[in-house]
Structure formats: C-alpha cells, structure tokens
Design brief:
Shape: globular
Distance between the termini: 54 Å
CATH superfamily of the largest domain: Glycosidases
CATH architecture of the largest domain: Alpha-Beta Barrel
CATH class of the largest domain: Alpha Beta
Strand content: 25-35%
Number of strands: 32
Amino acid sequence: MNTPSIPRPEHPRPDFMRDTFLNLNGKWQFAFDDNDTGLAQRWYLPDTVFDRTILVPFAYQTEISGIGPTDEIHPVLWYKRTFTVPAEMQGRNLLLRFGAVDFACRVYINGQLAGTHEGGYSPFDFDITTYLNEGENSLCIRVQDDPDTTQPRGKQYWERGLMGCWYTPVSGIWQTVYLEAVSDLYIRTIHVTPDIDHHLFTAEITLNQMIKKPLLLRLTVSFDGRPVRTVSVSVTDRITRIPVDMIVSGRLDPVRHWSPEHPNLYDLSTELLDGDTALDHVSTYFGMRKIEVRDGMVYLNNHLLYQRLILDQGMWPESLLTPPSDEAIRRDIELTKAFGYNGARKHQKMEDPRYYYWADRLGLLVWGELPSAYDYSDDTVRHLMDTMRAFILRDFNHPSIICWVPLNESWGVQNICTNPRQQAAARMLYYLTKALDNTRLCSSNDGWEQVKTDLCALHDYAADGDTLSRHFESRKYVEQHSCDMRPCYAQGCTPTGREAFLITEYGGIAFADIGVQENMGGMSTWGYHDKVTGEEAFFERFTSVTNAIRSIPYCQGYCYTQLTDVMQEINGLLTPDRRPKVDPKRLASINVNPVSRG
C-alpha cells in the first residue's frame, strides 16, 4: 500500500512544543529475535544489518507497517536506523523522545546503552548527547513484549486469534519517535491548573535539574493570536508555581471558559532566561475549565452537565492502535459530534496525544481510561500505578479530559467484590489520581463493584427500554443490590450519596445487513442481543434504550457502545473505514432532544 516516506510527520505533542524538532518516523531496519540471541550476539552494534524493514510508528502486526497484517506473537523485536543531527541542533543537548513503545525496551546509540524503559503506553526520553558522533549516528532499539497479563494491555489479546471483545495486539514502536535540542538546563513539565472562580490559573513549571543561580521565567498568555498577559518571575528552585490573574486592569476582555460549545483555548509561551540568553522556550496551551460533582450532580463551569458519551476504542483496520494520520483523528471527533455526542469514553487506551489536542480544539469531553491488566499480582499493581501516573503527567493540560478511569469492569481485579487487597488497589488508584490531579473526576472501577469513586458508573446492555427502566427504577435499590450484571458496590463499600450516577455502557446494536458479516479469524461477528436488519429496526431499538436512560431522573448521562466496528465486534455506528451505518442527523436528534426525566 502507498505510504509517505515520513508517516505522521506532525509534531506529536502540540501541548508541549519546542522549535527544535526532528521526526524519526519512516523506514527502519527490523528483525524478529524469537530465539532471543540478539543481546549475546550484540545486534546493537552499528555494523549489524537486519533482514527486514518496517514503517515506524506502526506495529509489525499492522498492514501499514509493511510486515502485517498478522497475529503472530514475536516477544523480542529489534529496530535500527541512522540519523544525522541537523546543523541547527548541533552544539546543544539532544533528547531522544518516544511517544510509546510496547512494552519494555533498551535503547542504544552507536552501540552504547543509552537507557531502558518499561510501559507500553507511556512516553519516555533519554539525553543521548554523550553517545553521539559527528556525522552519522546509529540508533538501535530492542523491544520485549511478552503475552503477559500483568501488563496494562487494554484490548490487546494475549494469545493468537481473537477472543470476546479483545483484538490483535500491538508490539514495539507505535507512536512517533523524535529528537529535540535543549540546553543543559531545560523545562521538564508545564502543568496549568485553571481556577475559573477566581479568574486565574497557576502554572507549575518543573526544570530538569536544580539551578545554581537565579534565573527568569517569562510567561506570555495569548488568545486568538493576541497577547493577554506577560508575567516574569525570578526562580531559584527546580519547581516553581506561578499564579496568573486573568483579569487585566483597564481591559474589558472577559475570561473565556472552555466547553464543548465554546472550546476557547489560551496559548502559553514559557521562556527560561539567563539574563538575555534564552535557555529554553516551550509552547503549550490550556483552557479555563472546571469540572466537579456536587450532591450527585455533575457541573461544568458551574453549570449542570448532562453527558452524552460514545465508547471509542481508537482502532483502525490498517494500523490498529496507531491512528493512520492526523486527519483520521480529527475525522473521528467530527463524526462523534455529528452523531450528537458531547463526549467520548476512550476505551482501554491511553490515546495518541493528538486525539486530546483535537478534542480540545473542536470541543469534545473525554474520559481518559487506563488500559487494563488481566491477572492480579504485585507486578500488576506496579504497572497500573506507573501507567496511570504517566497518563496524568503527560495529559494534564488538556481541558477536554474531565474524568480518569483507572479500572474497568473489575478487569485485573477479578475478586474485588470480596477481596480487601484488590479493593485497596482500587482505592490506591483513585487516590493516586487525586494526588496528581484533583481538578478532574475519577470513575475508579467503571461498570460495577465500586469501591471509592466520584461517579457511580454502571453498565447495562438491556435489549429494550422497558427492561432497562425496570433495572434502574430505584437508585437506592441499585446501590444496595445490583444492576443487571454485578453488584453496584463491592462488599463493605457503601455510597456516600454524593456520587453522580451514569450508565456508561449500553446499546451495542449490530446490523445483520450492514458491515462485515463473515467470520473473523474463525470467530463470528457479534453485537449485543440479536442483530437488527435495516435502519428503522436500529432506530426503534436505539430510541427505546436511549430514551429509557434519559428518563431516569437521577441519571447524569450515558455512554453508548460504540463509535466504530472493531474486528469481530460489529456494533459500531461506523464501519471500520468510518462510513456511517445510520443517518447522523437523525441519531443526533434523539441524543439532543429533551426527554421527560420522570
């Protein structure tokens, strides 16, 4: 298939950009190492040549990579390419950045080990300055991705083939690889916390190391290309918190809030200065936005919020977890909004950062969900904790993200209902999200068997509205007993009465006459309950279950399953190649039009 020489050429982090940027995507040498002999044979040395090529950043299992499509399991992979440092980057420190590599990797520069990393969804980087040669340099990566169910896998199946609602896994590099040039001292993170009630925001800026003399941080806030405020602060510590008042004396410009209807974004330019010398310059952006639960109600910017969400797996037939292009990401969000949804629950995936960027720009609420592991152990707890932390640290500034979801349907904590240790793990993940980010909500075990949570979020795939209405006739009964599937709360855990109630999976209606119907790898295609034939039959069922939920007086929103067909699961509103199965305007009218809520 035709592919550009440098796929995904855009900057992968619009929320953290420097002017210096060299994209390393494209064709790399590649090899499987099924006998795990590469380390002993020192494949990382520059003169070793691998027998295949792969198109980075696409996993070998994908068609677009040039190797797949395949469900073969190869636990050890090797990548190699050369690069030359551009003239404008020379004489500075070089950071080698990876968006995501699944799962564990060792990175070599010119045959020397530059660093290691573990975690299939989290970004990482190494300062490779001391390993560089003049002229051409060798970059080699060894990746190990075992079918290990203590790893956060999400929807990646751990055996060959397909199973239930689990799909072909993704191994190795699956997000952009790039270089950045920095000084010895540079900005490591910028986290912006808005406070709309006091018309200000606080920028927490972390440097890569301690500083030996006072320096200057200069923050310039702009809106729609026009400067709003400039603040300069002398800094002496590695971490600096700078409150910035958004009310400018003598100006009548309002503080513009971010919402799906009005996705207002402020640009923030941050410079680190030593006298007149610029040590670093990072561009980011933020939204003045507030999300909270009060007495069982969800409020966005102090206004009641009813959430109309769609479950979105973020999978493409030709590229699996890696979006094939930036345009494909934007198109998914535009289609989501066209169907009348104001948000998406990104299911079992720490998404490509540019998805959140386009959600910020176009105005879509997003739930950020941690990919699940499937067996409980000490390693499971460590992996989940590390990935949740990386998720929040990377995506802190995105106003579109309003909720963190550490666990889904007790996956990886199968005995949470009665097991105190697994309940403690859920509480730990809940409080971890709050320790790192107390500005967002947390649905700690989405689906059932809640422990500590801001949202009582339940899943119910009832086939018709009457059945669904009976399941949720009484909130008190549901909370004390169960919904259709599992107990609402784990044993010994009781609601406080302050949680907001939502139904965060329902529907899942599949067509018998639209979309792929043949077996997928020997597995029959499926949706929930019987498949429907024709658009009218779909709308009859969709209207029944959706209006039943919208009529529940204590319910604050819902999430329909799902946006797209994915492999054997054909209950999407879109085919895998993103063709709508039903009229978006008609479906949007059902989502948006008011319904009596008892």
